[in-house]
Amino acid sequence: MLSQTEPLDDSGWTIKNVLSLPIVNKKEEIVGVATFYNRKDGKPFDDHDENLMEALTQFLGWSALNTDTYDKMNKLENRKDIAQDMVLYHVKCRNDEIQNVLNTRQVYDCEPWECEEEDLLDILKKDLPPLIKKFEIYEFRFSDFNCTELELVKCGIQMYYEVGVVKKFQIPQEVLVRFMYSVSKGYRKITYHNWRHGFNVGQTMFTLLTTGHLKRYYTDLEVMAMITAGFLHDIDHRGTNNLYQVKSGNPLAKLHGSSILERHHLEFGKFLLSDESLNIYQNLNRRQVDHVIHLTDIAIIATDLALYFKKRTMFQKIVDLSKTYEEEKKWVDFMSLETTRKEIVMAMMMTACDLSAITKPWEVQSKVALSVAAEFWEQGDLERTVLEQQPIPMMDRNKAAELPKLQCGFIDFVCTFVYKEFSRFHPQIQPMLDGILNNRKEWNAKKEEYEAKLKAIEEEKAAKEAAKAAKAGANNPTGGGSKTCSVC
Ligand SMILES: [Zn+2]
């Protein structure tokens, strides 16, 4: 403490006594000094003042830390915005790319945004519908093998016209084209979970709704949400599963507690839709947007196979219930108002779409199964090299010969239920069940072939050993030698 006799400045203020205390934050770091001058009663500061001020400076320390944290959060927020901007730049359909679908430069010598909706429709009407026919988009047996990725984008766009939602919900056509193109670019170029898979799931959803007659329970708004959810459901997939995200400590696993990748696909999808130039829902009202987003949430999360087993019985009960109605119209009227039941059917439809490769004609299924397996083996390689762990047989390329056996198990314990129940629900979905049953036969034949081969090898080995033993016995007629020692 010090005292001063002369005033400090013209105001005549003099320092009589001082109490100075460090400001310490929660991390025990000194972040400042608090100084108090001149007690009101003129007396020097005492122990009581010191205690009081110490408590006060503690608060100052905490608030300093809060300010620090706030600054850091602001910085992080800015970093996130910059990263998102960079992602969007690379994912979003560019002005030169949109010309691959909407060639306004060639036809009208102008950009899409300079055209009337009618003019854009004229271009799309000429180009897209023939593709739907050519590639059998309405068929459960559809295969993308002969399509380019751009043709898949075009077919995806046309589906919105086929179900009549473009006009009804006033989707700006340039936005629709940009959205679908960007979704295709949002998929990574990986072995299986790429844009082709994303498209196939959207196409199966479309076919279940139309050819499979499931559309009758849903409004046009819901149909649009379900098809979009199909296209978006695996966007930005990394070719590794949820467990791998956890084991490798991926930030995604720290962000999401369950259904890790599915939540990411959902967030990525909503992130694309948050950009006005990609927002196909921009002319819906608030209530409609909320409903579409609600359904998208349920549909995409439902593709987590871990959740599938929980909803099986619920779905089966709905199918059972449908069989108690004699009049179809009464059942449809009843179902159309049953929000929860409709959501359960929709969730199961997503599973049916996601697994639909297992129902395709054998030439398609056998190839697709191999690409699924190849992606699993790539994860197995990562587990061995990066995590230094032994992969499970399904992901172990050294056990590739077991694929037919694994496929049979997958068909029996996971897939068959879905297509059996859907075919029971709506007979129009029977082609999917026929497909899976045929593939079960094919995989089983391969499995038996492999087992027979193994058996033959075993028998040959046993025969050789027996011959060897017999020879040893002949050379040693007294037979006193050891059975295991070849020297005796
Ligand atoms: Zn998928």
Automatic annotation (TrEMBL):
Coiled-coil residue windows: 433-467
Short name of one Pfam family: GAF
PDEase domain mapped to chain residues: 116-450
Region: Disordered, residue numbers: 467-488
Top enzyme class: hydrolase
InterPro entries xref list: GAF, GAF-like_dom_sf, HD/PDEase_dom, PDEase, PDEase_catalytic_dom, PDEase_catalytic_dom_sf, PDEase_CS
Assigned keywords, A-Z: cGMP, Coiled coil, Hydrolase, Metal-binding
Name the record gives this protein: Phosphodiesterase
Species: Ameca splendens
Gene designation: PDE6B
